[in-house]
Amino acid sequence: MRKNLLHIWHKELSYEIREIVEVAKKIENFWINISWENIWDPVVKWEKIPLWMKEIVKNASELDEVYWYCPTRWLESAREYIASKTPNITKDNILFFNGLWDAINKVYKSLAFDSRVIWPNPAYSTHSSAEASHAWSSHITYSLNPNDNWNPDLLELENKVKYNPNIVGILVVNPDNPTWAVFSKQVLESIVSIAKRYDMFLIFDEIYEKLTYNDEDRVLLSDIIWDVPGISMKWISKDLPWPGSRCGWIEVYNEDKDENFKKYISSILASKLLEVCSTTLPQFVLPEIYENENYKISLNKRIENYKSRAILAEEYLWDLKEINLIKPKWAFYLSIAFNIDNLNKDFIPKINNNEIIKIIKTAISWSTRFDKKFCYYMLWKTWICSVPLSWFNSSYEWFRITLLEEDKDKFKYILTTIRDFILEFKK
Predict the structure, then answer these.
(1) What is the 3-state composition of the chain as percent helix, strand, coil, each rounded to the nearest 5?
(2) Using alpha carbons only, what angle is made at residue 363 by residues 405 and 26, rounded to the nearest 5 degrees?
(3) This prediction's pTM
């Protein structure tokens, strides 16, 4: 081409959760059955969609109005319902999006290039990729401390905010992905106070809020926002087993408290209005599903299943000196951190299939971080597809599996296989 076509920050748009799948798919071509532990999809893991929920969706699908162009902002019934359940907002403070990426992309792209949002380290990659790409610049982060229940380093956060006037917003992911922490009200109020002191706005990613193991841990931005401008992100396909719905929304708080923030929200809306339509069917059924008497029963059952698998995983792995098991406080993932001093990082497992070795070696090199090498080696040796978590802008060496496997015997097999594979790296 006569000119380079690539955006200077195109590499920030990587997504290891999907990239390892591309390698696994090539291995699958050798008639190998992969255990997919890389991403959350309960339907793929044979979680049954409740019949009452199917009935609601089926009945709605027979109505002509779910096939029309939905207003770009939202369906009136959906926004009225959400507003009725949420303090400190009205229906006019709600804007629907076609999945989480749509919301995240527009929230960051609507900022001025030199306006930055500081976000946690480790951080969910969709946020970090979008924010760094928007700014054409390196990440700005505050640390989450694994020795303090993954709580944020509030002193570091305030100092970075204080001495970098380009930082205009603070991202909080609560419940947090990938640490699986749930932050206390005191910690969250401290972050709100920092935003207030330095005239900033907040972004709270709360898409997992209904999946906390204990209700008393559940603190939302709407509970503590005071008069600080803020955005909360929600997504129905986590608290419902419906990842294909691609339906989420933002809740805007205190838009009228700051004229600059109000114009920023208007620009997000303007970018959204360039689209013809938001998702119609999921919005249409949202109130009826959430109000159904079976919803809470179904949700609690799912949470109990995830908790029981987390306990089972701890039973299988807790005594290994090569790792630290990071117990989740919510949902459906399990993080496993390496005790690097107890591992032979140079170990390479043996495998006889030269074609698979070639496939794996295209994805890693001598300089690749250990947790990524481990995940790819585990893929080639055990056919378990997991996710290296250093990719989540993390200085730690760790990896993640899911708590979704419905077949208890298969889940035990996966845990046993992971345990045995970790021990191959024992010094």
Answers:
(1) 45, 15, 35
(2) 60
(3) 0.91
Torsion sign across C-alpha atoms 143, 198, 116, 205: positive
Asked whether the predicted pLDDT for residue 113 surpasses 90, the reply is: no
Question: What does the pLDDT look like over 370-396, one tens digit per residue?
Answer: 999 999 999 989 999 999 998 787 888
| The pLDDT value given to residue 274 | 81
Residue spans of the domains in the chain: they are 10-48+295-423, 69-291
* CA distances for 370 relative to 162, 345, 377, 424, angstroms: 35, 7, 10, 14
The structure tokens listed for 345 are 């990082």
- CATH class of the domain comprising 69-291: alpha beta
How far CA 135 is from CA of 105, 114, 335, in Å, comes to 12, 6, 30
Ranked by mean pLDDT, the top range of 13-22, 121-130, 324-333, 335-344 is 335-344
Percent of the chain with pLDDT over 90: 62
The architecture CATH gives domain 10-48+295-423? Alpha-Beta Complex (3.90)
- The 3-state secondary structure of 300-334, one letter per residue: HHHHHHHHHHHHHHHHHHCCCCCEEEECCCECCEE
Pairing label, strands 398-402, 151-152: unpaired
Q: Which residues partner with 310 through β-bridges?
A: none
The answer to whether residues 72 and 102 touch, using CB atoms and an 8 Å cutoff, is: no
Distance CA 34, CA 19 (A): 15
Mean pLDDT, the chain, rounded, equals 90
Phi and psi angles of residue 140, each rounded to the nearest 5 degrees, phi first: -125, 120
- The DSSP symbol for 71 reads P
Do residues 414 and 334 make contact, with C-beta atoms less than 8 angstroms apart?
no
Can you list the alpha helix ranges (DSSP code H) found in 240-399?
A: 259-273, 281-291, 293-317, 354-361, 370-382
Cis peptide bond upstream of 175, omega within 30? yes
pLDDT of residue 268: 94
Q: Is 343 helix (H, G, I), strand (E, B) or coil?
A: strand
Contacts 24+ apart (CB under 8 A), 102-106: 102/246, 102/248, 103/233, 103/248, 103/249, 103/250, 104/130, 104/233, 105/130, 106/268, 106/271, 106/272
Instruction: Determine the Cα–Cα distance for residues 11 and 78; give it in Å rounded to an integer.
Output: 37
φ/ψ of 119, rounded to 5, equals -135, 165
Paired tokens of 401: 């599996």
Strand 384-385 relative to strand 35-36, pairing: parallel
